[in-house]
Amino acid sequence: MANFNLKINGKKQQVDVDPTTPVLWVLRDHLNLVGTKFGCGMAMCGACTIHLDGNATRSCVLPVSSIGDMEITTIEGLSENGDHPVQKAWLEIDVPQCGYCQAGQIMSAAALLKSNPKPSDEEIEAAMNGNICRCATYVRIKQAIKTASNNL
Amino acid sequence: MTLIKTSINRRSFLKATAMAGGGFMLSFSWLGCEPGKKDALTIPKEWFELNGYLKIGENGVVTIMSPNPEIGQNVKTSMPMIVAEELDVDWKNVIVEQAPLNTAIFTRQLAGGSQSIRQSWPGLRTAGATARHMLREAAATTWKVPVDEITTEAGTLFHKASGKSSTYGEMASAAAKIPVPKEVKLKDVKDFKIIGTPRKNVDGFKIVTGQPLYGLDYRKEGMLIAMIAHPPAFGLKLKSIDDSAAKAMPGIKDVFTIKTYQEDYSKHMFDVTAFNELVVVVGNTTWEVMNARKALKLEWEPFGEYTETYAHFMTGAKMPAKIPAGLESTSKHAQVMAELSKKNGKVVRKDGNPEAVFKKAAKVIERSYSAPFLAHNTMEPMNFFADVTADKAELAGPIQTPEYMEKSVAARLGLPLEKVDIKMTRMGGGFGRRLYGHFLVEAGVISQKMKAPIKLIYTREDDMTFGSYRPSYHALYRAALDANSNLIAFHVRAGGIPESPLFANRFPAGAIENYLAEEWSMESNISIGAFRAPRSNFIAGAEQAFLDEVAEAAGKDPIQFRLDLLAKAKSNPVGEKNDYEVDRYAGVLELVKNKSKWGEEMPGVFRGVSAYFCHNSYVAHVIDLAMENGKPRVQKVHCAVDCGIVVNPLAATNLVEGGSVDGIGQSMYSGLTFTDGAPDQKNFDKYRVIRHREAPKSIDVHFVQNDIDPTGLGEPPFPPVIGALANALYKATGKRHYQQPFLGEGITLG
After folding, report:
1. Would an 8 Å CB–CB cutoff place B750 in contact with chain A?
2. What residues have CB less than 8 Å from B51, skipping those under 6 apart?
3. Of A16, A34, B538, B639, which residue is least crowded by CB atoms under 10 Å?
4. Domains plus CATH for chain A?
5. Which H or E run includes B336?
6. What is the DSSP letter of A101?
7. Is residue B339 in a domain?
């Protein structure tokens, strides 16, 4: 066990955990931030996507010891009132079916639009290809990303 | 207007009032669904429960219970919409809550078979209409006017002659004291204001802001984490266990074995589990338990053949299932399936004299189709919370069959049914996997043993290798044409491991004078179960691809070929029992034909068509493919659907889109194969599912407009799209595809 000082959603958090613990489980088990989802545990599905210094990162294979002073943003901290343009677009298009993967999809989409505010269809597909949606809401996700892009 | 008896609601009213004692306060449950911050409603000081489905606050805010489990099919929005319609309230004043499991109030609290809306339609309408009637009675009594003169609009009562009016909230206290009417009038379809209008997902804000909703998010003070180790292959059981290293690891509370079901327990069909004896690791946190589980030293050994008996969930009929010994492999399965498909099967339906007609045919077309086992792979892996004490059990999590699993877990824990409470959490997908709730029972057994609240978590690997898989199927089709290319005989012989996908009385049965349908099956110890339109999800694709070839051989347009067959089934039906309505079947074909502008030249676009009827709804697809960088890409899916009245067109369209893409994905990419009993794919690195880049660019969904009572959409859009894809791929590449996943036949979508 070791102490880690983490900056999560703009707040300092201290946890005492095994250094190999993936950030996903630090968030879910230790900090009760359960918006970040467990899907595969091997960075193949994107359900656990967070932002690390603004970049979309899979938290299920990311040991807490590797974070250092990088800033973590989770779905809970993407916006203060749930009004990030991507979240608003997701509601406008009514994207979710079961909804389980959508936090990860939104985090990937928000990171994409930050680095590329006007992505082409191909760029959207490439950036989002690591996020599986078993309900297969892919067409709506793309539509919502375009809506968010237009409202940035 | 329809008059409907309200007996169900009388019972629920009595029960509800006994519970409530008039007006009462109810705090928001963890499963409640208050709207987003932006449109937060003022929570009433007092609630008045008019029946088990709804309660009205003194300020006019209405809470409507959503009785059924939510797996992404959107019943949590659509079912309350039906209640709100008959109650006649403004949807924006409605709060939706997931109902408790209570079969005395609610009927069929089950997510499966695309039946939630269809079977609850009368009950939900009656619940709303009954409450509205009680409010009108209360107003009539208060104002001393005839009840027939009281009208309502969007949560307000009016007496036009006297100019009096009152909100539902103001009248709720008085209405709660009115006896439940013996019968009520339901609205005319033409008067619907909420049903048929697009309404957004009531959980939308919680989903996009990452609030706790799912079983995996559930927690309770002092809760421990549990994981199981199960045999690595079907056909194996536990031989020995060395847990010394695991037990010594940090954060670990205990390691032990459990039996999910006791030997003398009488199972129902949702009690399926391939692995009854499991090793359990319990500890403080998920990561610690995961690591300790890796340190277990477990030995496994083959089990011998045994027989299980399951009671059918509706009929109660006992269904014996022989579970053979052995370690099965996909290569052997393929060999045996090919052999069995050459032998005569069990004749399920025979019209005319197909054998003789095949002999004299000018041309016989024979094709074989096959598909692998599929893992459901819900994005949220199996999990369940349980807190079992000496005299009661509290469970919470994702389950499609809470009514049935409540009985299973009560029996297993030795508790009376009324001491078991199962909370239904929103589910991260279901697709049929969560009909089979062994994981719920496992959680209960583990909590009882630990005397502590626990949450059982499956990893993706656990989930994928401990399935109730879609069976592997095979179908052989033959068609006989005469010298004028008329279809004169049709033969299907379908089988699978361990069940046949045959539906002998579905189209084209009834349209062909000489028809033979046979089935066969092969025993297996690999556990199987329902998967989004069980059986239909294979046979529809096979049949619709085969009909495409037959149409081509007959020199006919594939849509016209089907319409001609349907016209025959209408004018001169063959056989006694044909499980489809010709007009509705033809209706979706005509609609997709018109909307897709079928028959118009579109350079560079390759099209395939398909139609199917299952789970009470009719669906037809046209897929447009174009070659991009040498690979076919789905440009557009045109989809025509007849599911009767569309309750919520926004959600219905979403579900049809998803079902269509899921069908494309499963048939193109997915499959679970076995080597010596062990699944070869254990996670998404090897198990392919459709992703963004492979999804269609756009989907157009069209609903047939009619006033027929609504049917479901969870399953029907899935099966036919596979045929449309195969037929479009043929047009694009010149190659027919017979073996799913088509990826294995060297084709991918780009």
Report:
1. no
2. B9, B12, B13, B16, B127, B130, B131, B180
3. A16
4. 2-77 (3.10.20.30), 85-151 (1.10.150.120)
5. helix B330-342
6. T
7. no
